[in-house]
Amino acid sequence: MFSVFQIAGSALTAQSMRLNAVASNLANADSAHTSAGEGYKAKQVVFQATPVARSTPWAPGVRMTRVIEDDAAPRLVYDPRHPLADDKGYVAYPNVDPVEEMVNMISASRSYQTNAEVMANAKDLMQRTVALMQN
Amino acid sequence: MLTRKIDQEFAFVQTAMNLRARRQEIIAANIANADTPNYKARDLDFAAALRAAMGGAGGPVRLARTAPGHLEGARGELAGGAVKYRAAVQPSIDGNTVDLNVERAHFAENAVHYQFLLERAGSQIRSLSKALESR
Fold first, then answer.
1. How many structural domains comprise chain B?
2. How many other C-beta atoms are found inside a 10 Å radius of the C-beta of residue A124?
3. pLDDT tens string for chain A (135 positions)?
4. CA distances from residue A126 to A44, A122, A123 in whole angstroms, order as listed
5. Model-level pTM?
6. What domain range includes position B45?
7. Which of B53, B64, B95, B119: CA 20 to 30 A from A71?
């Protein structure tokens, strides 16, 4: 039962990393750069199931293995008066899709909540088990 | 002599509680991995696992050995494949078969079963200590 805490804990960590990636993407959604230069690219985290304890291989936790960058082309906006505009008048913005990020955020926070509930439930059961000794 | 009797008295509740705790871990792992690509949801076949652990009808689950060179399967409470993959109702495109609603329902159900076993163990302890007191 104690590994429930580790399992749910690993999920909380992983989901908060996902929330961090979303926050970073949204914060940089409007960081303009020249169309030739390398600007910010949307980042996504990749999850993987991983055993939390040698004794419980059938109940893996989750961890973030790597961060991938979205290879989609940057969003070009015509704005000739912008200081970063190229000779055709285009400014490049990161390929962050705000709708996708919001959906990701909601999904991550729901998962976070669920895992927090799992932890609270396991704690309750453990406390009751400990209370058996008072009988 | 007396301690062995007490052991036998608690054997069933102890085994069942252990398995319920295991199942809680497995379901917690499913919930933790709800967003992990290619993760397959698992569950414990509780009835079969309990039967195997109690050594009752059906006995412990063993691997079928059809040739002398075959190895005997690992022994242990959960050996013999009591942990199985859940049949997916709506698998997602990333290969994940966790259905969060199903998992939450099983999690709550298993917690109630665990609590029942706790109460059962508590009342057994109480009646035993009562019997010991009335010399």
1. 1
2. 12
3. 788 999 999 999 999 999 999 999 999 988 888 777 688 889 999 999 988 877 777 788 999 999 999 888 888 889 889 888 888 888 889 999 999 999 999 999 999 999 999 999 999 999 999 998 887
4. 36, 6, 5
5. 0.82
6. 7-133
7. B95
